[in-house]
Prior knowledge:
Structural class: mainly alpha
Strand order of the largest sheet: 1-2
Distance between the termini: 38 Å
Order of helices and strands: HHHHHHEEHHHHHHHHH
Number of helices: 15
Strand content: under 5%
Radius of gyration: 20 Å
Number of strands: 2
Largest sheet: 2 strands, antiparallel
Number of domains: 1
Oligomer: single chain
Helix content: 55-70%
Amino acid sequence: xxxxxxxxxxxxxxxxxxxxxxxxxxxxxxxxxxxxxxxxxxxxxxxxxxxxxxxxxxxxxxxxxxxxxxxxxxxxxxxxxxxxxxxxxxxxxxxxxxxxxxxxxxxxxxxxxxxxxxxxxxxxxxxxxxxxxxxxxxxxxxxxxxxxxxxxxxxxxxxxxxxxxxxxxxxxxxxxxxxxxxxxxxxxxxxxxxxxxxxxxxxxxxxxxxxxxxxxxxxxxxxxxxxxxxxxxxxxxxxxxxxxxxxxxxxxxxxxxxxxxxxxxxxxxxxxxxxxxxxxxxxxxxxxxxxxxxxxxxxxxxxxxxxxxxxxxxxxxxxxxxxxxxxxxxxxxxxxxxxxxxxxxxxxxxxxxxxxxxxxxx
Length: 362
């Protein structure tokens, strides 16, 4: 909004030229989302607490300590992130850019799915939300619509292709299968973040780390000079996603203020599904889907731990981990919650640096 209002006036007021620069508008989006979170956070938490007298339902089969330490904490705190993210993006981004609307659309739609899931849990006072098949169907339909939209926005050489890290010019043309692959990326990222969201602050920091990496990637692939120097596949217009990613980082920081141990609010599926979907959508747009698997490797590990646990139990009747997802395994081993969270943050940082290295190792 500010871009459209103020840039036309730059000829008369040269100081307004700063609104042409992505770096300035991205910084503005970060600070705006952060301030919005600080301003509305306390009131939103009070509202959620008033409407959720018992707080988020706790799984009976989860760690026993959660029945005491987590009881009564309200959920749906993802609303705080979504409001800050959407407001900051609409305020600072170029709203004629289709990529911004595609990413924002996926994020919002997944937030709605997450809200329906959280609402069912809270109203029924049960840890069981939407039926799994219905939830997955809604995610797939949303992602499929987004994949088709994104492929039409992308330039012809990239519309249905997959870029492979570590190779300069390798593009695999997936044809119609590109839509299926993009759906897998968005749905997979969404559910992976959802599985990781089990301890105070555990999911939001790795999400911010991944968003920061894709903020840089978006800026580079959207700039013909930088993408040419680094031999990346240029995606004209995708640089505007730096504003979106910046707003996501700012909103995440604001949420962490209230989600830091002991958490005053949980993000719930409203937050986790939408944030994972956002990362998936951005990775598809900037043609770095495989890099997301590296940058978001912590989310992959959490997901794999669940898959391995289920397969092992069904085939042998034995569990590989004391409890899945992986963070619960370490809880069962006696690790303190802050120890698990901080060590997982360290792992997320290392994996993010590994993902960044792929930009130059070609």
